[in-house]
Amino acid sequence: MSPPASPAASTPLLSASSPAWLDPEKVRRWFAPGLGEMVRIEIDARVGGTFSFVQRRGSDDVDHTGEYLELVRPRRLAFSWGVRNTPDVSRVLVEIMPLGTGCDLALTHELDPAWADFASRAEAAWAAMLDAMAAALD
């Protein structure tokens, strides 16, 4: 594995079972902000369940897909991460520690070594999404 992208953030109170992660209307508010219209979001929020986040980018629809690998409420969420019709799949781990009226959140995106040059872009993308999630929860 290449060095993971690991943005950490302090966000309003949420958990691994929070609607921010598992409700399509909430995800629509924070996923890939500014990159395009969210066309479709489907979520089967259970271990073994899948998700599909389709975003229109220019004239293309990009379908981010994955499977929920762990859902340990309220502190841990892990899922596979990929783009439909591409062979590469990575793993994302979200760990949440409640703190008073908020929480500390650590996100680790485990990338295949072939994607090492993409790690800084992945880190920036997740940081932007976590910021958008925090703003959506305020």
Helix-strand blueprint:
Elements: E1 8-12, H1 19-22, H2 24-30, E2 37-43, E3 50-57, E4 60-72, E5 76-83, E6 89-99, E7 102-110, H3 119-137
Antiparallel strand pairs: 1-7, 2-3, 3-4, 4-5, 5-6, 6-7
Helix pairs in contact: 2-3
Report on this structure.
This protein is an alpha+beta fold and 138 residues long. It has one domain: Alpha-D-Glucose-1,6-Bisphosphate, Chain A, domain 4 (2-Layer Sandwich). Helices cover 22% and strands 44% of the residues. The protein contains three helices and seven strands. The protein has a seven-stranded antiparallel β-sheet with strand order 1-7-6-5-4-3-2, with helices on one face. The longest helix is centred in the last third of the chain and has 19 residues.
Mean pLDDT: 85
The name CATH uses for the topology is Alpha-D-Glucose-1,6-Bisphosphate, Chain A, domain 4
Instruction: Quickly give the CATH architecture.
Output: 2-Layer Sandwich
Instruction: State the share of residues found in helices, binned by percent.
Output: 10-25%
Quickly count the helices: 3
Series of H and E elements: EHHEEEEEEH
Rg over CA atoms, rounded to whole Å, is 14 Å
Low-confidence stretches: 1-13
List keywords for this structure.
44% strand; seven-stranded antiparallel β-sheet; single chain; Alpha-D-Glucose-1,6-Bisphosphate, Chain A, domain 4; alpha+beta; 138 residues
